Fold this sequence. Notes:
The protein is of the alpha+beta class and 280 residues long. The chain folds into 2 domains: 2-122 and 273-277, Aminopeptidase, CATH 3.40.630; 141-263, Gcn5-related N-acetyltransferase (GNAT) (Aminopeptidase). 32% of the residues lie in helices and 31% in strands. It has 8 helices and 12 strands. The protein has helices spanning 10-18, 28-35, 78-92, 110-115, 149-167, 178-186, 225-239, 254-262; strands at 2-4, 38-43, 47-57, 62-69, 97-103, 119-129, 141-143, 191-196, 199-207, 210-216, 245-248, 266-277. A 12-stranded mixed β-sheet has the order 1-2-3-4-5-12-6-11-10-9-8-7, with helices on both faces. It is globular and about 65 Å long.
Amino acid sequence: MIRELTHHDIEQVYSILRKEFNDIDTKYLSNTFDTSYKFIVWDDEGINGFANITLIDKSERNWNLQIYVDPQFRNRGIGTALYQHIEQILFNQKASIITTNFRVDIYNPSYFFNKLGYNKWYGSPELHYRGTIQPDVDIDIVPYEDKYYQQYAICRQESFYELSVKNDFRPYKIPLSDEDRKYLFDKKDTIFITLSEEHLVGAITIDNGYLDHIMVSPAYQGKGYGKKLTQFGINKAISSGAHLVYICYIEGNEKAERLYPSLGFEVVCNTHVYRKFMNN
């Protein structure tokens, strides 16, 4: 009953997802199919569930796992059978860490994964902004340039260090590297920074309505820069034609929990990430 996915199965699998995820990206399955190391389905005269694995980090032997079962066929052992099949593949691949993520606002499978030896790693709410233009900010915000790379990288390290330690995001400080520098250079049109006498104070990334990497150097925190960067991001996204402005943050980030709702963002979903350490 378990076999590998083919392109002919995609519409059936997609119809399962539509039953609960009305807002799912139409490119989801094609992207997942292309990037998955293995994608299997449970076929009992029609596809009732599926599972796939993707290699996240080869050096750390870190894999991501996704399992989904049609709601009307749950509690029949399909998810367990799919998992056991996938876990054997991961065991043969000498996986060290397996992660999985799922939305808990629709259907919460945490009990299923707890039984399999997984523990919650972190949660990430997603918030949407559907309001109007925010007031103009009184700080100068300019496009990122490569000459600011070292300052930007250090600001990122320092701004997210405590959150990284708290949630075991390793490395706790993202190392400065040529690869990282090139990535930021390639994304430079989406990154904006604010300076004080050529010292980088904070930054924000704005990418097709998504606000990311909002950060303020610890020396300047508590002075309203985070709010002003977010307001700038909202206005920039709207003026660029974004139909929706959205943002995510990590549970336990108290500043984010207070700031974003105060600006008009509303939580629309919450994703939890679970992980399991393998003994290979």
